[in-house]
Amino acid sequence: MINLKYFYRGFAAIKGVGSPALALGASFIAIGALLKNIGFTMQQSIFSTFLTYALPGSLVMAESMLIGASLINIFFAVWLVNARLYPMTVSLMPLLMHKTQPKWKYYLSCHFIAVSSWLIMKDSYEKVEKENRIDFWIGIGVATWTVAIISTIIGYISSDFLNKDILIGLAIINPIYFTCMMLGAMQTIKISLSIILGTILGPAFFFVSQEWCILFGGITAGTIAFIFGEISGK
Amino acid sequence: MANNIILVILVTSLATYLSRFLGVISSQKIKENSKIFRWFNCLAYSTLAALIARMLIFPSGLLSEVSYLIRIVIIIFSIVIFYSTDKNLVYPTIFSAIMLALFSSYL
Predict the structure, then answer these.
(1) Total tally of structural domains belonging to chain A
(2) Within this chain, do residues A193 and A167 fall inside the same structural domain, yes or no?
(3) A163 to chain B, closest Cα gap in Å
(4) Distance (Å, rounded) from C-alpha A213 to C-alpha A206?
(5) Residue A179 domain-assigned?
(6) Shortest CA distance from B31: residue in chain A
């Protein structure tokens, strides 16, 4: 069903120095503490990370609850901030699809698509033959997902010991970690341009629409980078 | 409240899974060497960059309580550390957290 050799290889990708596990863990410790502060039980916090596993979405959920937003509003707010998962999935799954593999693996394992797992996979898929990539990917996904769930529990339990200064420190880990991972991914002109333009246009579109700035800025930046890359042949 | 929280979690996870699920459906018709794949690859990196830049420049929650200047200094230092440690991810992230916690407790 799942080739364990490749699963374990994927799972092991989070070990070692320079691994994303630490930064990923720190981010979800902050989420665990945050969820406790807004009145979640331990089980509800675990359930939340287990089912959502996308940090910006969980943050939006928490903020929306604090201002008493309706379920419809929460749905749209989360969908908007997590809509980036659509291009992320479309730019990953074709690399993993193979006719010998059953479809359910793709529908189940797409749940593991999040920034850290996606960047690890994009960085290492070429080292694995195409027919085994999905099992390798499930290994990476289960590993990062497990780190997120365990960290949520640690954050929940230790929230009484985490003062505001520590929580502010934890809050910056996630964007700094993503920034560094993106810088590491800047290996072609097309990707570098996508990242640089996205960094400029995302915040620039904030002045047009706070809700839509990530999508508008991202789509504009990515399209310009794509056209430029295609024309220049890089 | 308890029922409400469960509903909120389910709605959040549904809104999140929707994009991943639709992504898998679209992927079945997309070849990895096609133009549309290359376009989506650019879109994935650019929307991620837009999201991260927004989180750092217009943060919500706790980070919004830290001044622009401090945030920018920490971002620049973290990037310098990242490049000077052979692209290690652990050092810059730990540095940023400690620096920010110290800044916010003493300033």
Answers:
(1) 2
(2) no
(3) 10
(4) 5
(5) no
(6) A94
CB contact under 8 A, A61 and B18: no
Contact: A22, B20; criterion CB under 8 Å:
no
Residue A147 lies inside a defined structural domain of this protein: yes
Whether ipTM exceeds 0.85: yes
More confident residue, A124 or B19: B19
User: Which member of B49, B101, B102 has the closest CB to residue A194?
Assistant: B49
Contact present, B74 and A179 (Cβ < 8 Å): no
Query: Sign of the CA dihedral A220, A97, A128, A16?
Result: positive
Q: What count of CB pairs under 8 Å joins A to B?
A: 330
Domain span at A202: 186-234
Let me know if residue A216 belongs to a domain: yes
Tell me, yes or no, whether A215 lies in a domain: yes
Separation CA A70–CA A144 (nearest Å): 31
| Whole-Å CA distances, A132 to A144, A145, A163, A181, B36 | 19, 20, 45, 25, 24
Higher pLDDT pick, A155 / A233: A155
From A8's Cα to the closest Cα of chain B, the distance in A is 22
Q: Does A82 touch chain B (CB under 8 A)?
A: yes
Domain match, A152 and A63 both: yes
The pTM of the full predicted model, rounded to 2 decimals, is: 0.93
Interface test with B, best of A46, A65, A91, A186 (most B CBs within 10 A): A91
A57–chain B Cβ distance below 8 A for any pair: yes
Q: Does the structure show a pLDDT above 80 at A234?
A: no
| Same domain assignment for residues A96 and A148 | yes
Number of other CB atoms surrounding residue A195 within 10 Å: 26
Domain with B2, as residue range(s), is 1-30
